[in-house]
Design goal:
The chain has 59 residues and is an all-alpha fold. The protein has a domain of 32 residues. It is built from three helices and no strands. Keywords: Cell membrane, Membrane, Transmembrane, Transmembrane helix. It is a multi-pass membrane protein.
Length: 59
């Protein structure tokens, strides 16, 4: 049972990170800013997502 729960949580986390990357790509931020945010989200998923939610491009 532990593996199924871990797999489900991992899948949910992956969906959240992909959603954040799509939101960054659709934002009005400049190209370099988008690239940096996407790299932060890819290489530091937990911290990157928290930082993006607090300071990332809005809209």
């Amino acid at each position: 049972m532990g593996i199924e729960v871990g797999g489900l949580l991992g899948l949910i986390w992956l969906i959240i990170v992909i959603w954040a990357i799509v939101k960054v790509a659709q934002s009005s931020a400049g190209g370099l800013a988008k690239l940096i945010w996407i790299l932060v989200l890819l290489f530091f998923p937990l911290i990157g997502l928290i930082i993006w939610l607090l300071f990332g491009p809005k809209g």
